[in-house]
Design brief:
413 residues; alpha+beta; Peroxisomal Thiolase, Chain A, domain 1; 10-stranded mixed sheet; 17 strands; 23% strand
């Protein structure tokens, strides 16, 4: 009998997120909009959202997420760079070229950008993981980044769901955060016009249709997952991570699975959600909607906050992207996970953001929107008084200095 082939280990070696330099209290936004302040925090389970000044964009966030975690050895070993985003800085040139340049990654590196709505980050991570697992590049590593920011939606009903942020993953054959169990991955797709970005300025679609499409994608991916694997879903996994258009959607998703699998009473279902889903929302509740980065912010929250999580435990991850694509898969927690995620100090970075008044947030959003598709622009650094001096000057962060004839110019703070 031929010997059974050993599966190549592959997973996330390092992870770090960038939550923006500014935050908006969603209860305060609700007060200013004349709505119940409990609406975002209780119904949507969202507390804050990240906000960008005009000198930040998806390129700067991607670089500022990845740069602090990468050593010179890492930069020399990366031979694949994939950026998932639905907020691209250009209609042809990929964000990955800017990121490659400003991070100083060695030049023998394949790079590209992936667009698949919120699923783009997972799509990029799986492509990178299969490349590493194939062994074709030997000990080379892959860098995957999800980076997004919402369009301006002042006064719209879904304004509370918007946000900005980025997450960076170093994927290798020496995982220290989680190991991917690639044989478990299940997926589902159907063309649907739930939400989309028809122009450089607009987000469009139907929010109710999007909720139904998300759950339909979960049902389809879950059915595929069960056919492939046959696991007892709730018994196998210590924690569950669901894509977060808003945090309460994760609870709705897990309720949907539990109702399919058992006859649990409502109180028991809610207890399962609190124990197995709530940790994933630890940081997500303070980011807002972050599109391609959402699942991995959930992973960082789970590792930071789940009290009983142990090395070797399995975690399920469900990714959904409008349009649509869905994927459900299993990862295994590595012994070094808490140390590696703790070193990313995500809670500290969130707490250090500059709280914005609603008027300041609106001014930032209007200025950001004003330079979309323009040829020449220089961002004002006094739009939020003192912000550049307190959160950027001397900190070595990448910033957008402006455009000249559509050429983008970046520099270090």
């Amino acid at each position: 009998m031929p010997a059974q082939k050993t599966r190549q280990r592959v997973g996330i070696e390092k992870i770090r997120a960038y939550p923006c330099s500014c935050g908006l209290d969603l209860r305060e936004l609700a007060r200013v909009r004349g709505e119940d302040p409990d609406h975002p925090t209780k119904l949507l389970m969202m507390d804050w959202r990240g906000v960008n000044p005009a000198w930040e964009d998806p390129v700067t966030m991607a670089v500022n997420a990845a740069k602090p975690m990468l050593t010179e050895q890492d930069l020399a070993s990366i031979e694949l760079l994939i950026v998932g985003t639905e907020s691209s800085a250009d209609q042809g040139k990929p964000i990955s070229t800017f990121v490659h340049s400003h991070l100083g990654i060695q030049p023998n590196c394949r790079n590209f950008e992936v667009k698949h709505a919120c699923y783009g980050g997972t799509c990029a991570a799986m492509a990178a993981a299969h490349w590493v697992a194939s062994g074709v590049a030997g000990p080379a590593k892959a860098l995957v980044i999800g980076t997004d920011m919402s369009r301006m939606n002042l006064g719209e009903r879904y304004e509370y769901l918007m946000g900005s942020g980025a997450v960076a993953l170093l994927i290798s054959a020496e995982p220290k955060v989680v190991e991917f169990e690639l044989e478990t991955n299940a997926y589902w797709t159907r063309e649907v016009g739930d939400t989309f970005r028809p122009t450089s300025r607009e987000e469009a679609g139907n929010t109710d249709e999007s909720l139904y499409a998300y759950l339909e994608g979960l049902d389809g991916a879950y059915a595929h997952f069960k056919r492939k694997n046959g696991f007892d879903y709730d018994a196998r996994f210590g924690q569950h991570i669901y894509h977060v258009p808003f945090s309460a959607m994760s609870y709705r998703a897990h309720r949907n699975i539990l109702k399919r699998e058992s006859r649990m009473k409502r109180a028991e279902i809610e207890a399962r959600c609190e124990r197995k889903v709530a940790p994933s929302l630890t940081h997500s509740r303070k980011f807002g909607g972050i599109y391609t980065a959402a699942n991995y912010i959930g992973l960082m929250g789970t590792i930071d906050a789940a009290p009983d999580l142990q090395p070797g435990d399995h975690i399920s991850i469900y990714s959904y992207g409008s349009g649509s694509g869905a994927e459900l898969y299993s990862v295994t927690l590595c012994p070094e996970a808490k140390q590696v995620v703790g070193a990313a100090r995500l809670g500290e970075l969130i707490a250090a953001r500059r709280p914005l008044a609603v008027a300041e947030y609106e001014a930032c959003e209007r200025e950001r929107t004003s330079y979309v598709d323009v040829a020449t622009f220089q961002p004002r650094r006094d739009r939020v008084p003192g912000l550049y001096e307190s959160h950027y000057a001397g900190r070595g962060l990448l910033v957008l200095e402006g455009y000249e004839g559509y050429f983008r110019h970046y520099g270090w703070s």
